[in-house]
């Protein structure tokens, strides 16, 4: 059995979570000795698709014409399309219809969490849907004293200076406006937002917020994985203010790096993470500020070891093993397949 890991339009999504997911899938296959190809000219039994661009739709149709099986990853939902780019809320219902068409081409659909599975099932999609994490590379994302030193030297941070980081596009859904508001309320803390979006694509109020951000906020733009690993090592808190996710790979990375984590208390994280036990959560800006202060001054206990135990279950090799179970089921029957994720 051979998998065709379709990489069409990878350059478009390379710097996004979908791009990371594709690379994770490739490594998962390699670590579990799953035969795969990325060349459409090679023989394959199952095609695996990750994007919702026309080239993926065309590839799925061609595969079906050849009587091949189709795995379609459901990374996107209408809910996480909203509050992103200009006009996204208006186009969200049309986006929903388009992704339903895309995912409907799959013999099965894989989506990162039970939460996103519930959303897709609610759309009326009739194909089998499996929840399987995008995973995290625990062999790569490990704390490093040398990495911490590189990070703090690069950004000219004093040894005593507290640093809060976040990662994502410059979009409201990711919580960038609240990030800037918190920075204004906490001038004694350095806030660094990694990631980039062309400002022409986002609403004017986001453009204004970034332009008027206080001096304690830094926007380095998109950085390499090595640099991000250094940032996790050298900062004091990973602040994830997202309003909606299908998983959030950067959250898994932060947990793997054993950095303190504070997230917005949203439905996707209600089942997997308990506030004050696994990670810290907040809802209002006042709550965020209070918990940030207490995490930074040490009055809230570290939860990094407990959180790491949870993320260990999402190591890429373990994910690849579960992918193998799914692939095997496709050449047999989906009936009775119980994937304990």
TrEMBL record:
Keyword set, alphabetical order: Transferase
Stored Pfam families: Glyco_transf_4, Glycos_transf_1
Limits of the Glycosyltransferase subfamily 4-like N-terminal domain: 41-139
Domain Glycosyl transferase family: 150-299
Molecular function terms from GO: glycosyltransferase activity
Matches recorded under Gene3D superfamilies: Glycogen Phosphorylase B
UniProt protein name: Processive diacylglycerol alpha-glucosyltransferase
Native source organism of the sequence: Clostridium fungisolvens
